[in-house]
Design brief:
Layout lengths: L1 H38 L6 H16 L8 H15 L3 H15 L11
């Protein structure tokens, strides 16, 4: 049983390495096919393409994962607006559905269902 788990993890790591290599190559090829001709920019190497990917990830998604970043803020704001427009009964019904759907316990301060 343990060997299946180790094999699965090894496959995922190998896939991630291959995927990272392929994405870096695609970025490099697209850059070198488009930017020098269209914008008179430089031709880049594979490692420069990987650097561009990392830089764009940092600039567009931020350092954090999960609850950090503009996406979480936007979704949180939309949820707050939706909850503000509900009656207390609708709000409790909505929270109950969320807890049931995600099979999670209520947060502190909320009554347990």
């Amino acid at each position: 049983m343990k060997s299946k788990w180790v094999l699965r993890v090894a496959k995922m790591i190998a896939f991630a390495i291959v995927a990272a290599f392929v994405v870096g190559c695609v970025v490099m090829l697209l850059w070198n096919a488009l930017v020098p001709e269209l914008f008179k920019g430089p031709v880049i190497t594979y490692w420069q393409a990987v650097g561009l990917l990392v830089l764009s990830h940092i600039l567009l998604r931020g350092w954090g994962h999960g609850r950090h970043g503009w996406r979480h803020d936007r979704l949180s704001h939309k949820l707050e607006q939706r909850l503000a427009g509900m009656t207390p009964e609708e709000r409790e019904q909505f929270k109950s559905k969320l807890h049931h759907r995600w099979d999670c316990e209520p947060m502190e301060g909320e009554e347990k269902m």
